[in-house]
Amino acid sequence: MTNSQGKPAQSPLRQQRRLEKYPYILARYAGQAVAYAAFVVLLAFFATAPAYNPIDPNAAMIKLSFIHVGQRKVECRKMSPEEIARLPPNMRLTLDCPRERLPLLVELELDGKLMLHRELAASGLSHDRASNIYQKFVVPPGRHVVTARLRDSARTEGFDYTRSTEVELKPRQNFVVDFNAATGGFSFH
After folding, report:
1. What CATH number corresponds to the domain at position 135?
2. pLDDT digits (tens, 9 = 90+) for 6-58
3. Which of 41, 68, 73, 187 has the lowest tally of Cβ within 10 angstroms?
Protein backbone atom coordinates (compact mmCIF):
# COMPACT_ATOMS: atom_id res chain seq x y z
CA MET A 1 0.00 0.00 0.00
CA THR A 2 1.39 3.46 -0.97
CA ASN A 3 0.31 6.99 -0.22
CA SER A 4 -0.30 9.75 -2.78
CA GLN A 5 3.44 10.56 -3.01
CA GLY A 6 4.42 7.04 -3.96
CA LYS A 7 5.96 6.19 -0.57
CA PRO A 8 4.85 3.19 1.43
CA ALA A 9 2.07 4.10 3.86
CA GLN A 10 2.70 3.80 7.60
CA SER A 11 0.73 1.31 9.58
CA PRO A 12 -2.01 2.73 11.85
CA LEU A 13 -0.16 1.42 14.94
CA ARG A 14 2.98 3.29 13.96
CA GLN A 15 0.99 6.50 13.37
CA GLN A 16 -0.63 6.16 16.77
CA ARG A 17 2.76 5.74 18.51
CA ARG A 18 4.06 8.87 16.76
CA LEU A 19 1.01 10.83 17.94
CA GLU A 20 1.57 9.57 21.50
CA LYS A 21 5.16 10.88 21.46
CA TYR A 22 4.08 14.28 20.12
CA PRO A 23 3.21 15.85 23.53
CA TYR A 24 6.61 14.75 24.94
CA ILE A 25 8.42 16.35 22.01
CA LEU A 26 6.48 19.57 22.51
CA ALA A 27 7.22 19.51 26.24
CA ARG A 28 10.93 18.99 25.56
CA TYR A 29 11.11 21.96 23.17
CA ALA A 30 9.09 24.12 25.57
CA GLY A 31 11.48 23.17 28.40
CA GLN A 32 14.48 24.13 26.28
CA ALA A 33 12.88 27.47 25.41
CA VAL A 34 12.23 28.19 29.11
CA ALA A 35 15.82 27.24 30.01
CA TYR A 36 17.27 29.47 27.27
CA ALA A 37 15.03 32.37 28.26
CA ALA A 38 16.06 32.01 31.93
CA PHE A 39 19.73 31.97 30.92
CA VAL A 40 19.34 35.12 28.78
CA VAL A 41 17.52 36.94 31.61
CA LEU A 42 20.20 35.91 34.10
CA LEU A 43 22.97 36.98 31.73
CA ALA A 44 21.29 40.35 31.07
CA PHE A 45 20.87 40.93 34.81
CA PHE A 46 24.50 40.23 35.67
CA ALA A 47 25.72 42.28 32.70
CA THR A 48 24.13 45.45 34.04
CA ALA A 49 22.92 45.13 37.63
CA PRO A 50 25.86 44.67 40.00
CA ALA A 51 27.76 47.92 39.49
CA TYR A 52 31.50 47.33 39.72
CA ASN A 53 33.72 50.17 40.88
CA PRO A 54 37.42 49.29 40.87
CA ILE A 55 38.14 52.19 43.21
CA ASP A 56 36.29 54.42 45.63
CA PRO A 57 34.41 57.19 43.75
CA ASN A 58 36.27 59.76 45.87
CA ALA A 59 39.76 58.41 45.10
CA ALA A 60 42.18 58.32 42.19
CA MET A 61 44.44 55.50 41.03
CA ILE A 62 48.09 55.46 39.97
CA LYS A 63 49.15 52.44 37.91
CA LEU A 64 52.78 51.50 37.38
CA SER A 65 53.03 49.13 34.44
CA PHE A 66 55.93 48.21 32.18
CA ILE A 67 58.07 45.44 30.71
CA HIS A 68 61.81 46.02 30.39
CA VAL A 69 64.94 43.92 29.81
CA GLY A 70 67.85 44.66 32.12
CA GLN A 71 71.44 44.70 30.99
CA ARG A 72 73.48 41.50 30.78
CA LYS A 73 74.85 40.26 34.08
CA VAL A 74 78.22 39.46 32.47
CA GLU A 75 79.52 41.37 29.44
CA CYS A 76 80.16 39.53 26.19
CA ARG A 77 83.77 38.49 25.65
CA LYS A 78 85.69 37.85 22.45
CA MET A 79 86.68 34.20 22.11
CA SER A 80 90.24 33.23 21.17
CA PRO A 81 90.87 31.33 17.90
CA GLU A 82 91.70 28.20 19.94
CA GLU A 83 88.36 28.35 21.76
CA ILE A 84 86.51 28.82 18.48
CA ALA A 85 88.35 25.85 16.90
CA ARG A 86 87.26 23.53 19.76
CA LEU A 87 83.58 24.24 19.09
CA PRO A 88 81.49 22.29 16.58
CA PRO A 89 81.22 24.10 13.21
CA ASN A 90 77.57 25.07 13.78
CA MET A 91 78.41 26.81 17.11
CA ARG A 92 81.46 28.86 16.05
CA LEU A 93 80.80 32.43 17.10
CA THR A 94 83.39 35.07 17.85
CA LEU A 95 81.59 36.29 21.00
CA ASP A 96 80.62 34.40 24.14
CA CYS A 97 77.55 36.14 25.60
CA PRO A 98 76.01 34.68 28.77
CA ARG A 99 72.24 34.99 28.70
CA GLU A 100 71.47 35.99 32.29
CA ARG A 101 70.17 39.55 32.86
CA LEU A 102 70.47 41.86 35.85
CA PRO A 103 67.42 42.45 38.05
CA LEU A 104 65.73 45.84 37.84
CA LEU A 105 65.33 48.16 40.81
CA VAL A 106 62.22 50.32 40.59
CA GLU A 107 60.95 53.02 42.94
CA LEU A 108 57.79 55.08 42.89
CA GLU A 109 57.43 58.11 45.12
CA LEU A 110 54.35 60.25 45.76
CA ASP A 111 54.83 63.67 47.37
CA GLY A 112 58.21 62.61 48.77
CA LYS A 113 56.79 59.42 50.31
CA LEU A 114 58.18 56.14 48.97
CA MET A 115 55.23 54.02 47.78
CA LEU A 116 57.19 51.24 46.06
CA HIS A 117 60.75 49.95 46.27
CA ARG A 118 61.07 46.62 44.47
CA GLU A 119 63.72 44.51 42.80
CA LEU A 120 62.34 42.77 39.72
CA ALA A 121 64.12 39.57 38.73
CA ALA A 122 64.45 38.72 35.06
CA SER A 123 61.93 36.13 33.91
CA GLY A 124 62.67 32.91 32.03
CA LEU A 125 64.43 29.71 33.02
CA SER A 126 67.85 31.23 32.36
CA HIS A 127 66.84 34.64 33.77
CA ASP A 128 67.31 36.09 30.29
CA ARG A 129 63.86 37.54 29.63
CA ALA A 130 62.20 40.84 30.46
CA SER A 131 61.17 41.88 33.94
CA ASN A 132 57.63 43.16 34.32
CA ILE A 133 55.48 44.94 36.86
CA TYR A 134 51.83 45.94 37.18
CA GLN A 135 51.05 47.69 40.45
CA LYS A 136 48.06 49.86 41.46
CA PHE A 137 47.99 52.54 44.15
CA VAL A 138 44.78 54.18 45.36
CA VAL A 139 45.50 57.79 46.29
CA PRO A 140 43.45 60.82 47.30
CA PRO A 141 42.58 63.22 44.47
CA GLY A 142 44.36 66.55 44.28
CA ARG A 143 47.76 67.93 43.32
CA HIS A 144 50.63 65.46 43.70
CA VAL A 145 54.29 65.12 42.71
CA VAL A 146 54.96 61.68 41.21
CA THR A 147 58.57 60.49 40.88
CA ALA A 148 59.60 57.24 39.17
CA ARG A 149 63.09 55.74 39.22
CA LEU A 150 64.64 52.69 37.55
CA ARG A 151 68.06 51.01 37.66
CA ASP A 152 68.77 48.42 34.95
CA SER A 153 72.57 48.35 35.11
CA ALA A 154 75.22 46.94 37.45
CA ARG A 155 75.70 50.23 39.32
CA THR A 156 75.22 50.01 43.07
CA GLU A 157 74.12 53.60 43.78
CA GLY A 158 71.69 55.89 42.01
CA PHE A 159 69.36 55.20 39.11
CA ASP A 160 69.71 55.03 35.34
CA TYR A 161 66.30 56.60 34.68
CA THR A 162 64.46 59.17 36.81
CA ARG A 163 61.46 61.31 35.98
CA SER A 164 59.24 63.48 38.10
CA THR A 165 56.03 65.36 37.32
CA GLU A 166 53.39 67.35 39.11
CA VAL A 167 49.86 66.20 38.36
CA GLU A 168 46.33 67.20 39.37
CA LEU A 169 44.38 63.98 39.95
CA LYS A 170 40.60 64.04 39.79
CA PRO A 171 38.32 61.57 41.58
CA ARG A 172 38.15 58.20 39.74
CA GLN A 173 41.04 59.18 37.45
CA ASN A 174 43.58 56.57 36.35
CA PHE A 175 47.12 57.92 36.07
CA VAL A 176 49.54 55.53 34.34
CA VAL A 177 53.31 55.47 34.79
CA ASP A 178 54.91 53.62 31.87
CA PHE A 179 58.50 52.97 30.83
CA ASN A 180 60.14 52.68 27.43
CA ALA A 181 63.93 53.00 27.16
CA ALA A 182 63.71 53.73 23.42
CA THR A 183 61.71 56.93 24.06
CA GLY A 184 63.90 58.14 26.89
CA GLY A 185 62.51 56.39 29.97
CA PHE A 186 59.37 57.01 31.97
CA SER A 187 56.21 58.48 30.52
CA PHE A 188 53.11 59.63 32.38
CA HIS A 189 49.59 59.31 30.98
Report:
1. 2.60.40
2. 666 666 667 666 666 667 777 888 889 999 999 999 999 888 877 777 778 89
3. 41
| Exposed / middle / buried, residue 23 (Cβ in 10 Å: 0-12, 13-18, 19+) | exposed
Instruction: Output the pTM of the full model.
Output: 0.69
Encode burial over 77-96: b for 16+ CB neighbours within 10 A, e otherwise.
Answer: eebeeeeeeeeeeeeeeeee
My answer on whether 65 and 135 are in the same domain is: yes
Distances (CA, A) of 139 to 18, 53, 121, 136: 71, 15, 27, 10
70/135 same-domain check: yes
Specify whether 174 is located in the same domain as 126: yes
**84 close to 145: Cβ distance less than 8 angstroms:** no
Q: Which helix (H) or strand (E) holds 39?
A: helix 12-48
H-helix or E-strand spanning residue 175: strand 174-180
Domain around 5: 1-52
Rounded Cα distance between 125 and 5, Å, is 73
Provide the Cα torsion 107, 111, 112, 115; round to 10°: -40
Partner residues linked to 90 by β-bridges: none
User: What are the residues facing 119 on neighbouring strands?
Assistant: 105
Strands 161-169 and 131-139: unpaired
CA distance 81 to 87: 10
